[in-house]
Regulator of protease activity HflC (Stomatin/prohibitin superfamily) (Garicola koreensis), 419 residues
Amino acid sequence: MPDFVLIVVLLALVAFVVVILAQSVRIIPQARAGIVERLGKYQRTQGPGLTLLVPFIDRLLPLLDMREQVVSFPPQPVITEDNLVVSIDTVVYFQITDPKAASYEIQNYIVAVEQLTTTTLRNVVGGMNLEEALTSRDQINSMLRGELDKVTGRWGIRVARVELKAIDPPHSIQDSMEQQMRAERSRRAAILTAEGTKQSAILNAEGERQSAILQAEGEAQSRILSANAEAQAIETVFSAVHASEPSPELLSYQYLQTLPEMAKSESNTMFVIPGEFGEALKSLSGAFSGETAGSENMSYEDREKSLEARARRLRERRSQEVEGAGRKGRPGISSAIADLAESARSTSVTDDDTRYLSTKELEKEARRAEKGNPEALRQEEEAEEAAQTRSDDAEAAPPQAEGPPDEPEPEQPQDPEKQ
């Protein structure tokens, strides 16, 4: 029996010691702070770590969170300056900086911050109209933070920032705002469409103008190139003609070469040999002088044969002139006359309207070419024609009884080739 009592006493002592130790030793975690009271009076502020308390004398108050805390408050109805009720949701970020003040200066700092935020929000937003409240969130946040920080400082609390989550106007105002926004968006869309159409028209007009300018420049350049090419061709031909030192005989020969092509056309019934080509025909009278009589009464076949014979004789004369003059490759007057005979032979047509130069006309052209002085030759021809006219008149007039004897006719100039 005594042993049983001793065991019970020992167990009681052990339990008492355990309780005393549990009350005396406390561990405070990181970012926490504790207030130690001794006999109900503030003793100290205990930080993180091991804390020893006097049993039955010291007491540790609930630990305070020293980290920044986020508290979201429910929507608060606020009346604006234009008497519209809006619902505002707020979020407050705060941190305990003085555990003693937070424990002894305010009973419930979270409720105090909520109520202070509501009253300050009503004061700030109450001085604004709806449009300012909707567009001035940053300004409202700054004003709320400043007002809250002034009051909560003595509570050992620092307000980091205040955010407005939402500002909800009445439903009627929301409908009006939506209509206004739709109208504004429609107006902006119309403006953008008009600007796009205007810009498109400007770009199209600019493109057409540029295209017209480029086309005109291209046409002008094409004309310039064509004119330059034509001028270059003319200059080249002119230089080639001057470089070859062409004589009147060569030019006459080139002109005579075009007669066959002219004869091929059905519309050409008469060939005209200009007077400046008379030098090329100065030997023509000699070629035809022996055959003038009766040539006009020759038949078509006889004329062809006569022309062929003349061409052969003129070819022989041309070869003799080339050998005598020593100018190879350049045709002389006789060659031009021979080619004229060949052209006349090759271009003979049976059209009665075709006109050939008569032998007298050819002899006259040859004589003009031989004289070299057109004015003197013209005066001589006029004198011959006047003498011939007087001779014809004298033969046709009746004989007179008296009068001086007839004067002899002036001697006709003879062609050198005939002599």
About this structure: The chain has 13 helices and nine strands. The longest helix spans residues 171-243. Strands lie at 25-28, 32-38, 41-46, 49-52, 58-60, 64-65, 69-79, 85-96, 157-168.
